[in-house]
Amino acid sequence: MMAHAAREQMQDMASATTDRNVPAVLLERLHVTYATAAGPIPAVADLSLAIEAGSFVSVLGPSGCGKSTLIKVISGLLAPSAGRVELNGAPVTGPRPDVGIVFQQPTLLPWKTVLDNVLVPLRARKAPREEAIARAEEMIALVKLKGFERNYPFELSGGMQQRVALARALIHDPPVIVMDEPFAALDALTREQMSLELQRLWSHSRKTVLFVTHSISEAVFLSDRVIVLSPRPARIVKDIRISLPRPRTTATMADAAFAAACDELRRQLYAVTGAGER
Amino acid sequence: MKQTLLRLGSPLVTFAFVLLAWEAAVRLFGVPNYILPDVSQVVTALYRGYVDGEFWPHLFFTMKAMLLGYCAGSLLALILGGLLAEAPIFERFVFPLVIALQSMPKVALAPLVIVWFGFGIESKIVLVALICFFPIFINAIVGLRSVDPNLVDMMKAFGCSSLDIMLQVKLPHAAGPIFAGLQIGVVLGLIGAVVGEFIASTQGLGFLIQNGANALDLGIVFAGLVSLAVIGVTGTQLLRFLHARLVFWDRKSATSVAS
Questions:
Q1: Distance set, CA B70 to CA A186, B101, B192, B228, B254 (Å)
Q2: pTM
Q3: Partner B contacted by A120 (CB < 8 A)
Q4: Which one of B155, B158, B162 makes the best mutation probe of the A interface by having the most chain A beta carbons within 10 Å?
Q5: Nearest CB to A107; choose among B151, B160, B164
Q6: Are B176 and B253 in contact (CB under 8 A)?
Q7: Cβ–Cβ contacts within 10 Å for residue A101, how many?
Q8: How far apart are CA B151 and CA B44, in angstroms?
């Protein structure tokens, strides 16, 4: 019941908030350079990318290529050295309410219950308490954690913790969600299940998702579009569309088209990392 | 149930054994009671002291010095620790001084403190505060500094203010190390009180012990030691209990950081 209500609500919000003509995320000639003791290290060099509203885009790249830097810039935690960053047409100058973030680690506060953790973004905005709690309960039901509201993070499994983080990222109903390798710390089976869950959530809300991963199959399974980055400094070396029909299921992973897409991406990745023959 | 009995009972068995061995040794080897009193002598001294009431003023004196000094010292440690952890400028100016003070044995300051604050309870309060300050201070800094930067980033990304981050992330995170410091502080603070009473006092358990030793009445000395142990154990256990209650999410931080 609850989940159903939440679903309807999210659909309403999604159709109300997004203007399809303005890119949800716009990066233009983005440069990010870190100053270190050994001299400046360029993490991102001249990267331009426009993500249309409502699409699911994965960013794939070798480890240490600057994917997380990208996430930090978009979420307003890090100012770019040069270039433009816009969300829904407005420049990013700091953390914004219209982005939800899921980090690589669940980053839950160990001393707060699941409910209070999910409430963090709303509390920060001083949202009315009753409404906030109702909304949090909806989100918790949405990520299938109903009944765990009063539990503490240490009482949950890794997958459940990451679901809490997902509920937290969704609670303030941001049109854009950025996810930084959210399932990297999970075991293979849980990871696959979380992919299915994420697809379910996304297909109901149709938010814009920027999903950073280093798993090729995860990227193909979830995305409308996969972007391959070069090793540091990050540039876009490939931008492919994934047109597998939705909803995708575990059977999709056995599909020839799925395998072909994975294969192409793998070839690209091997090419950019300069790794030897396969 | 059986586990609890075993946990509570085991130390009691050890205690009983030590007391028995003590009593036996004194009787068997005919140790004179100005070297080592037998158990019954200590019990008698304790009984007389607390039933006839002679010990109470001394116990209260030491406990009062301890409580006031401990509260003042830990409060100051938390405030200064918080300032130092949060304000880098403060650190640059103050930290060297703190390190210099910390590496000095604080009991060496006792005579000076007596000169400045007199023979009364004030000097003992100051000594307690001075000695229990450092472990709490250092642990507060370590605790506030060791916050997971990802948690701070998360809070920022979701629009939380610095005050939110302090209250909801840094303080709870630091609570574990702070409690460890508070626990160490109890034992160290007690040292401060006793040293102060040794040097110059007409009251307190330290005074009682020293007086007993001067009169070669070791029953009183041991009675004083037992009283101090009871204060120390009670204080430490109280904090351990509070620690487990308040910092329920992390049993591992029960062990100390700065010891």
A1: 46, 18, 10, 15, 20
A2: 0.80
A3: yes
A4: B158
A5: B151
A6: yes
A7: 27
A8: 58
Cβ contacts (< 8 Å) between B247 and chain A: which residues? 111
Tally of helices (H runs) and strands (E runs) in chain B: 11, 0
Query: With bands split at pLDDT 50, 70 and 90, how would you rate the model's confidence at A61?
Result: confident
Give CA B222 to chain center in angstroms. 20
Q: Which of A59, A101, A54 is nearest to B151 (CA)?
A: A101
| Whether B160 and A124 lie within 8 Å, measured CB to CB | yes
Strand-pairing partners, residue A241, are A225
**Contact across the interface for A124 and B159, Cβ inside 8 Å:** yes
Q: Which of A111, A121, A172 sits opposite B249 (nearest CB)?
A: A111
Domains of chain B are: 38-247 (1.10.3720.10)
pLDDT at position B30, please? 87
The torsion of the CA quartet A242, A244, A249, A254, rounded to 10 degrees, works out to -90
Among B150, B154, B173, B249, pick the best mutation site for testing chain A contact (most A Cβ within 10 A).
B154
Using CB atoms within 10 A of its CB, is residue B97 exposed (0-12), middle (13-18) or buried (19+)? Answer: exposed
Contact B150 A97 (CB under 8 A): no
* Distance between CA atoms of residues A210 and A222, nearest Å: 11
Pick from B151, B156, B248: which is nearest to A109 by CB? Answer: B151
pLDDT at B95: 81
- A231 to chain B nearest CA, in Å? 24
The token pair at A36 is 């270190």
For B176-210, the pLDDT digits (tens) are 999 999 999 999 999 999 999 999 889 999 999 99
Chain B residues closer than 8 Å to A153 by CB: 249
ipTM of the complex: 0.81
How far is it, in rounded angstroms, from Cα B232 to Cα B188?
Answer: 9
Tell me, what's the pLDDT at B102? 85
Set out the domains of chain A in order of their start, with CATH numbers: 21-98+175-273 (3.40.50.300)
> What's chain B's Rg over C-alpha atoms?
22
* Interchain contact B151–A (C-beta under 8 A): yes
Residues A152, B169: C-beta atoms closer than 8 Å: no
